C-alpha cells in the first residue's frame, strides 16, 4: 500500500505546485493593480501630506439633486477608470481559485468545523494583502464559496479587504487626524473579526458549499492539461454573470446619487439625523479604494460633525449595493442583508467613537 501511495499519476497536479502557481498569479496581479500604485501614493504623501483629488460622488452631481442619466454615465466612467485594474485582477484571482486551489486545501484553511471566530480570523488576515474595494473583492468571495469556504471566512474576507486595507490606514495616518485612523482600525477590526462570526450564525446549516459545482468532486485530482480550460470557464462564467449586474447597479447609483447620498453642507445642521443617514446611505454608495477620504474631508470642511464623519469612515468602504448584489447568491440573501445591517450598526458605533475622542 505504501508503494502504491507513492506513485503519482502522470499529468496530475502536485497540489503544492498548483498552490504556488496560484500565489504567483495573485502576487503579479496585485503588484500591478495595488502594491506598486499604493507604494507610489505613499511616497507622494511623504513629500506632500495632503490628499489630491476630490470626491468621486461630485461626478454624478450635487447632493439633493434629482436623478440624472448623464450624471450616472459620468460617475460610472470615473468609477471604472479608478477600479478597472483591480476588477480585472479580482476576476483573474477568482478564476484561479477555482482552477488551481485544491478544494481539500481550501477546506483545511477556510472550511467549516473549527469555529466561526477562527474562520473569521483567518479570512480577515487573508484579506489584508489584497487590499481591494468591496466590489472587486466580490468575485473572489463568490469563488471561495463555490469551493466550500465557510460563511464567516468569506464574510471576513469580503469586508476585511476594504475596511482594514493597510494602504488606506497609512493614507489616513498621513492626511487626517489620528482619531480617524484609530476609529477606522478599532471598529474595522471589530467588524471583520467579531461581527462576521456573529452574522454567520444566520447561515442555513446545509450551506457549507452554497452553489453546487460538479467539477468540485474531482478538484483534487484534476489533470494538468485541464487547468486552462477550468480557468477559462470560470473566468467566462463570472464575467457574464457578475460584470453586467456590476455595470447596471453602478450606473443606477450614479444616476440617483443626489437622492441616495444627500449629505452636503446643510447636513451640518442635521445633528443625530446626519449620523443615522450617513450610516445607512454610506452602506449603499459605491466608491473606489480610499474614495471615502476626500468625501469625509469635504464634508468636515462644510461643518459636518465628527459623528457623521466616523460613520462614513466605516459605511462607505465596507459594503455597497453593488457588492451586495454580486455576492448575495453565494452567501445567501439573508446573510448578505444581515451583514449590510451590521455594517450600518458598526458605522453608528464608529460615529459615536469618533465624536467621543475628537
From TrEMBL:
UniProt KW keywords: Cell membrane, Membrane, Transmembrane, Transmembrane helix
Topology in membrane: Multi-pass membrane protein
Keyword Membrane: yes
Signal peptide positions on this chain: none
Annotated compartments: Cell membrane
Primary site of residence: membrane
InterPro entries given in the database record: DUF318
Ranges annotated as spanning the membrane: 16-33, 83-101, 121-143, 155-176, 182-203, 234-256, 268-287, 299-325, 337-357
GO cellular component: plasma membrane
Family note: Belongs to the UPF0718 family.
PANTHER family listed in its UniProt record: UPF0718 PROTEIN YRAQ (PTHR43299)
Protein's UniProt name: Permease
Species assigned in the record: Actinomadura soli
Organism lineage string: Bacteria, Bacillati, Actinomycetota, Actinomycetes, Streptosporangiales
Amino acid at each position: 500500500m505504501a508503494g502504491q501511495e507513492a506513485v503519482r499519476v502522470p499529468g496530475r497536479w502536485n497540489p503544492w505546485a498548483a498552490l504556488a502557481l496560484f500565489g504567483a498569479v495573485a502576487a503579479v496581479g496585485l503588484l500591478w493593480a495595488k502594491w506598486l500604485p499604493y507604494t507610489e501614493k505613499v511616497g507622494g504623501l511623504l513629500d506632500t501630506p495632503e490628499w489630491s483629488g476630490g470626491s468621486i460622488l461630485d461626478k454624478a452631481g450635487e447632493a439633493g439633486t434629482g436623478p440624472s442619466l448623464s450624471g450616472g454615465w459620468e460617475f460610472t466612467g470615473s468609477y471604472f477608470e479608478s477600479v478597472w485594474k483591480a476588477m480585472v485582477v479580482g476576476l483573474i484571482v477568482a478564476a484561479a481559485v477555482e482552477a488551481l486551489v485544491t478544494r481539500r486545501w481550501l477546506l483545511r484553511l477556510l472550511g467549516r468545523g473549527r469555529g466561526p471566530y477562527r474562520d473569521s480570523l483567518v479570512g480577515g488576515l487573508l484579506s489584508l494583502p489584497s487590499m481591494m474595494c468591496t466590489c472587486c473583492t466580490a468575485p473572489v468571495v463568490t469563488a471561495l464559496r463555490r469551493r466550500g469556504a465557510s460563511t464567516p471566512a468569506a464574510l471576513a474576507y469580503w469586508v476585511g479587504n476594504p475596511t482594514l486595507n493597510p494602504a488606506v490606514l497609512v493614507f489616513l495616518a498621513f492626511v487626517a487626524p489620528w482619531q480617524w485612523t484609530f476609529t477606522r482600525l478599532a471598529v474595522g477590526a471589530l467588524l471583520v473579526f467579531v461581527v462576521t462570526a456573529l452574522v454567520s450564525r444566520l447561515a442555513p446549516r446545509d450551506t457549507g458549499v452554497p452553489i453546487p459545482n460538479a467539477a468540485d468532486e474531482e478538484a483534487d485530482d484534476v489533470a494538468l492539461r485541464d487547468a486552462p480550460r477550468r480557468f477559462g470557464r470560470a473566468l467566462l462564467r463570472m464575467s457574464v454573470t457578475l460584470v453586467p449586474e456590476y455595470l447596471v447597479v453602478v450606473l443606477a447609483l450614479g444616476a440617483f446619487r443626489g437622492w441616495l447620498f444627500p449629505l452636503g453642507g446643510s447636513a451640518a445642521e442635521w445633528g443625530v439625523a446626519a449620523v443615522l443617514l450617513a450610516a445607512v446611505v454610506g452602506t449603499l454608495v459605491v466608491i473606489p479604494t480610499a474614495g471615502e477620504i476626500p468625501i469625509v474631508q469635504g464634508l468636515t470642511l462644510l461643518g459636518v460633525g465628527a459623528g457623521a464623519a466616523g460613520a462614513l469612515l466605516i459605511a462607505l468602504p465596507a459594503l455597497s449595493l453593488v457588492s451586495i448584489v454580486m455576492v448575495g447568491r453565494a452567501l445567501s440573501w439573508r446573510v448578505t442583508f444581515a451583514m449590510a445591517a451590521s455594517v450600518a450598526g458598526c458605522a453608528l458605533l464608529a460615529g459615536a467613537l469618533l465624536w467621543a475622542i475628537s
